[in-house]
Amino acid sequence: MPRPFDSLAFPRPARDALALRFGQVSTLLDQGRVADAAGLFDTIRRDYESWSALVDLRFAQDTTSPAAKADRDYADGLGPYVTAHEVTLKRRLLEYPDPTAVAQVVTPHTLELWRTDITTFDPRIADALEEEARLSGEYTALLASARVEIDGRQVNLSGLAPYAESTDRAVRQQAEQVRWAFFAKNAPRLDTLFDDMVHLRDGMARTLGYDSYIPLAYRRMRRVDYGPADVARFRDDVRTHVVPLVHDIVQKRATTMGWEVLYSWDEPLIDPLGNPRPAGGHDALMAHAQTMFDRMGGDLGPFFAQMRENGYLDLVNRPGKAGGGFCTSFPTVGMPFIFANFNGTQHDINVFTHEMGHAYQNWKSRKLPAIDLLWPTMDAAEINSMALEFLTWPHIDLMVEPGQGARYRRMHLISSLAFLPYGVCVDHFQHEVYARPDMTPAERHAVWRELEQRYLPWRDYGGLPHPTMGGRWQAQGHIYRSPFYYIDYALALCCAMQFWIRSREDMPGALKAYVDLCAQGGSQPFTRLVRSAGLQSPFKPGTLADVVRTARALLDD
């Protein structure tokens, strides 16, 4: 049985102690003890990553805590120092005089990842990396500090979701108004934060010898099997095949509702009868989820029971808590942790099943021999999360109010399709921004608005000043904190929907392929993991068109 989460405590690593431990790895290499050196190197990294993950989680759980912020600041300062040691040892292992000895204890894919890693760091950018982490924390804290008033209540940004999905159009409009009023008020700070980040990242790239941040970003994401040209073709496929379908869906919804114009505040109301709601609050949902995973068979149910019983979940929204949802893990413990903000909408089900996919994959691969294999690169990791969203469909009636299962499945499919144009819009925006880092804030807003009109031509903000002027992107935390990550969701969704198509004909076969994929962890790069699961690459011509064709047929049925 895993250790209870509340009992977790990892020693704060000191620089001198870390230097000593990393030095022991070098000594072992000097002695020709490659296996021992690689084993110790892996242990040190697992210890450090476990501590670092807990520090980041504690800060996300309470961004107002001085102690959590102090720990986060210490970790931000330590990160580049640790990276410097890791890169030195990775380079030494890659250049070891006896490559056969290294190949016996380090997998070829790990070596491939390390060859990428060593091109992303130099001691000259250590201070810039620390500053990047600090700015990221500032963005997180700024959004977590939001307090907006609606219906006589003060809520945070996550708490606006029920109002944004209200069947009362005036309430939805008010939710949009107060949401964007917060961003408009903080726009100068948000612009400055992002401007600092862009120039910081561009400066790091040029210090490392790159022409722009874009190639460095791809390497930091450990993308070893595709590049910007492949992603650009995928964006074109989305525009060609998905945008027209979503446009038709949106227009049909407007006609059904009797609206002459469908405004941005109408888009969250996907179901004209009202979006299906969760079957109760946190405790009820967790009980229903246990039944759902038990019925799916295999070890999903027992694994989720371990998470519940040992406290590896934090799903309740509260003041001071960072927004969004994520899954993290502690490599020395072998247990993942799910963080989210339940708000009483269908989003609770989406984010829970999504993050549960990440958690299950990490747990299935927990015994793989090296830390580099425990997680796939994020493009493949998002297949594991998004596929589980679809594979739970046969049992999702447990998670929604009685009689709303079919409506939920339809809504989930529509929202998944609608995500693709937005996802590639975010990605295209970042390519434009980092290709021209000296753009003014106003120019960046103009670029966003132009791309939004290209990929989401139906969007109408009804005159709300901030998003109408191109400020919608400031609410997307990935743009600030995890540049170039967002396309991973779109690529993975193309693969996850293939699991959905397969499950409609052969659910046992689809589940087996899914479990096998999760167990592989990060043992292969994205395109090879996709192929190993019997899926077509999103970069292959026709893949997305086939997925859209199936979805359109179901929606038209």
From TrEMBL:
<keyword id="KW-0482">Metalloprotease</keyword>
<dbReference type="GO" id="GO:0004222">
    <property type="term" value="F:metalloendopeptidase activity"/>
</dbReference>
<dbReference type="GO" id="GO:0046872">
    <property type="term" value="F:metal ion binding"/>
</dbReference>
<dbReference type="GO" id="GO:0006518">
    <property type="term" value="P:peptide metabolic process"/>
</dbReference>
<comment type="similarity">
    <text>Belongs to the peptidase M3 family.</text>
</comment>
<dbReference type="InterPro" id="IPR001567">
    <property type="entry name" value="Pept_M3A_M3B_dom"/>
</dbReference>
<dbReference type="GO" id="GO:0006508">
    <property type="term" value="P:proteolysis"/>
</dbReference>
<keyword id="KW-0479">Metal-binding</keyword>
<dbReference type="InterPro" id="IPR011976">
    <property type="entry name" value="Pept_M3B_oligopep-rel"/>
</dbReference>
<keyword id="KW-0378">Hydrolase</keyword>
<keyword id="KW-0862">Zinc</keyword>
<protein>
    <submittedName>
        <fullName>M3 family oligoendopeptidase</fullName>
    </submittedName>
</protein>
<keyword id="KW-0645">Protease</keyword>
<dbReference type="Pfam" id="PF01432">
    <property type="entry name" value="Peptidase_M3"/>
</dbReference>
<dbReference type="InterPro" id="IPR045090">
    <property type="entry name" value="Pept_M3A_M3B"/>
</dbReference>
